[in-house]
Amino acid sequence: VTTVGVFQIESRAQMTMLPRLRPRNYYDLVIEVAIVRPGPIQGGMVNPYLQRRQGLAEVTYPNPELERVLKRTLGVPVFQEQVMEIAMVAAGFTAGQADQLRRSMAAWRRAGAVSEFRDRLVGGMLNNGYDPDFAESIFRQVEGFGEYGFPESHAASFALLVYVSCYLKCHEPAAFLCAMLNSQPLGFYDSSDLVRDARRHNVEVLPVDINESELDHTLIPGKTLNPDTRHPEPAVRLGFRLVAKLSNHGIEQVLKARQDSRFMSAEDLVRRSAIHQGDQQALSNAGALENIAGNRHQAQWDLLGVEQLPGLLRDASAPEEQIQLPLPSAGENTVADYQSTGLTLGDHPVYLLRDQLRQRKILSSVEWTQIPDGRHTRLAGLVKVRQRPSSAKGVVFMTIEDEHNPMNIIVWEAIVEKYRHEVLNSQLICVSGVTQRSQGVTHLVAKQLEDLSSLLLSLTDDTNLATQSRNFH
Hints:
This protein is α+β, with helices and mostly antiparallel strands. The chain has helices at 12-21, 26-35, 38-42, 46-53, 64-70, 80-91, 95-106, 118-127, 132-145, 152-171, 173-182, 191-200, 248-258, 266-273, 277-285, 290-293, 296-308, 311-316, 330-341, 349-352, 354-359, 365-368, 413-418, 420-425, 463-467; strands at residues 205-206, 218-225, 232-237, 376-387, 396-401, 406-411, 428-438, 441-451. The strands form two sheets. Strands 4-5-6-8-7 form a five-stranded mixed β-barrel. The chain has a three-stranded mixed beta sheet with strand order 1-3-2. A hairpin with an 8-residue loop joins strand 4 (376-387) and strand 5. The model is unreliable at 462-473 (pLDDT under 50).
């Protein structure tokens, strides 16, 4: 189960840390939350802690006094409180001086604030008999906290939310998804990412429907049986709030008119709800009328018929033969889904392009799982996340997604400069690089990048529609 959507541990860095740290209890989560921060990273605390936790390095302490301070984190300072205690125990700081040090660490945007304490901290440790190399290493760790480190109390509060969120995501995934969707926008992931992750874990998600949806996303009885209880798991019905360009007033009109009875046709919808043309178009574009019209094309045609024959002319007109329009292609439906709701429950764009990608010798994410460490690989996917942390020295971390899974890409600074356009602007990207597998974490280290966004145009014959498909990323 992934941590997509889980507060504090949903970032790329946290997802990479989880298989290495392998939290087993609540306090492990406290450390997990705190250690993936610029302070511990730049202070060189992460690898020593992991090596000690994994039994690859011995847990040692300079003396019993510091063992008392550092024992809960295996001899490596992770929290601000530990830094303050080290200053008092090892360097002879008073409580007031330690609090001044804490304040300097809290002022993490003020460059050099912690450096003012170097002579006092290192000198105090040397006067108390500590090894010079150890004293300097402690200061480097303290200096790292000046780039943002967590107090233990702060991390403990966040870890409690992590624990509860993980429990809900694991045991009540539909309810978790529904709540996350109703709370958008937030976090690293948009509605498309949350829905796709939930569906990978067998959550049933149903489309926006003119007769079934409410304003918000809702839980309804589903068809998937829980293997333990044999009772149906809840499904998530997408709500009208997801539909682009649909007004709140239009939603209110639809819900009020629907109280009497279900809508039977596009004409019935327009007559009873009196929604304006823009709201009609928004609903038909989102596929919300498919159950009463058959498909998007038919819904749009039926709505045009209602618009062309208003009032008395409509009542007096002779009945016309129903015209059956061609069904929209899978590509047209996919593009329309992304444009109107930002996600699709149909075919993923990369799935529709898979034949073209195979001709370019591009593997799927499933095929990639069979590629060993160190082997050259070509992958392609929609660009979902781009991150360039200040602590990463110019490295860009990308997450791309194909029809099966997300894939993690590392782009070193020199490659970023060489392929800046592709890194910053691609919606669909091909990455050629070297597979890197270590401790349950897999990356592709990029060597070449190619912008394949133009392939998205082939998903529909309507060039204008495809050109606007910016919502793919």
